[in-house]
Amino acid sequence: MKLRILLSLMVILTCLAASDHPIYVSTAEIDYKTKERRIEMAVKIFSNDLQSAISAKEGNRVEIGTKQEEAAIATKYIKEYLHENFKLYSNDKELEWEYVGRELDRQDDFAIWVFLKVEKVRKLKDLVLYNNILIEHQEGQKNKISFRTDSEQYRKFDTYLDAEKVKLF
To answer: Which pLDDT band holds residue 68 (cuts at 50, 70, 90)?
Structure first.
């Protein structure tokens, strides 16, 4: 069984490596901690894709995850970009998230993890995510979403389309 899985994985990876079309993916992990009344989010985006999207929007080159990056300027643009493209709604109202920080993951092709949170969350009747990260910038962009409440297993969702909202619960 393990050999079959390993061989299947090797075939898939070989096909992906031979493909002329690159893969564009972002990942969002969202944890709703009911006892703390807090939503914690970690969003992973490849820094070169984020840099391209923000630079195109701003009309000038914005360095993100490079030696030329000016941290305060990059952080400002990242926060603005995410405020436009990553929104949570509950009970038909937008929840305002707070920027916690970011971290460059040099081992994962220079991916950037951005950390966000929503404090003092009242009892939620529903939770809807608008995740439009890089959708307008990269054809074939896929945004993977993992959501859980407290210690339950993550529930998985994907977005592919502009202005697509996902009901998390």
So the answer is: confident
